[in-house]
Specification:
The chain has 85 residues and is of the alpha+beta class. The chain has one domain. It contains 2 helices and 4 strands. Strands 1-2 form a two-stranded antiparallel ribbon. Strands 3-4 form a two-stranded antiparallel sheet. A hairpin with a 2-residue loop joins strand 1 and strand 2. The longest helix has 11 residues. The two termini are 20 Å apart. The model has no long low-confidence stretch (mean pLDDT 87).
């Protein structure tokens, strides 16, 4: 982008997939966790699942997801969260 920022499209305008979802999950945990694809059986119906593991639950959850970043632009105000914070 002209601003120098990077947009990661994990399935909106570009084809996504399981790998895109797993990588997006790991990014959302600030790289402090691992996501793996699994399958679960629900009365004979096999559905994909995401299995998440981390040695640092506080960092991967609160450090990467806490909405503690105040974003203001004119009259607009929001709380930012995620690993960019």
């Amino acid at each position: 982008l002209p601003s120098g920022s990077t947009v990661i499209d994990a399935g909106i305008d570009a084809p996504g997939g399981y790998d895109a979802g797993l990588l997006t999950t790991e990014i959302a945990m600030g790289g402090a966790g691992k996501a793996q694809l699994g399958f679960a059986d629900y009365d004979g119906l096999q559905l994909p699942t995401v299995v998440v593991s981390t040695d640092h639950p506080g960092i991967s959850l609160f450090g990467a997801q806490l909405a503690g970043w105040r974003v203001k632009a004119g009259d607009y105000q929001a709380d930012g969260s995620g690993p960019a914070r």
